[in-house]
Give the backbone structure.
Amino acid sequence: MNAQSLRDLHNGTALLVLPNAWDAASAAVVQRAGASAVATTSAGVAWSCGWPDGDRLPAEEMLAAIRRIVRAVDVPLTADIEEGCHDDPSTVASFVSRLVDFGVAGINIEDGNKDPAILAAKLRAIRDVLGSRDLYINARTDVFLRGMASGDAGVEEVLRRGALYRDAGADGLFVPGLKVIDEVRRVAAGIAPMPLNVMLVPGLPSRQQLFDAGARRLSAGIALSLEAYATAGRMAAEWLERDAPDVGYGTLNEWLTR
């Protein structure tokens, strides 16, 4: 499925809701559950490949994992590629070009805790390399998620970065950690017509409230993959007649750090 199909899904009469998959089998399950598009969770993909989250998964392993996922679905796939597996814009652009060749319709690419100019340079390089080939690029900013700023200051910084990323070639803006409805409304209005993507976090308003405030996409993030691994831990412990392990984001990262 092409990038325009994914782009069009942001223009519906309700939120585009994306349950994030982490391997080919989970992607096939998510599609059969009724998803109109499938997104990957970078943490879940890393864990499934035996690596901790946090831009640690080698590029070739990410490419192989995403290629398997593309093969398993018939709806648009958008891949979370963290920071693009490299700091060099040309290297990131070549990496993304290979994803497009596989059939990926969209990507999430984030600024993390780095200078936003770095992500802007990556976005320009990606567009230059792709040329006429289309790709929906969702630029992610971690201002709220990482607590860089909050309240009015957080909104202003997100809007500043959103404008920078839009001018560099981004289609949409992903702001994980954004959950105060007035702040959602201000960000959505300030970046329009770019679609605003928010992520499932505790205390998030209802889907209708988010849509009415201007958000157009809601991602589950790590929720499904974490629940799957926690369920496996509980079932294994029950079978072994032991106490269930404490499976969470931190423990999975710890167990896979070598």
Remarks:
- The domain at 3-222 is CATH 3.20.20.60 (TIM Barrel).
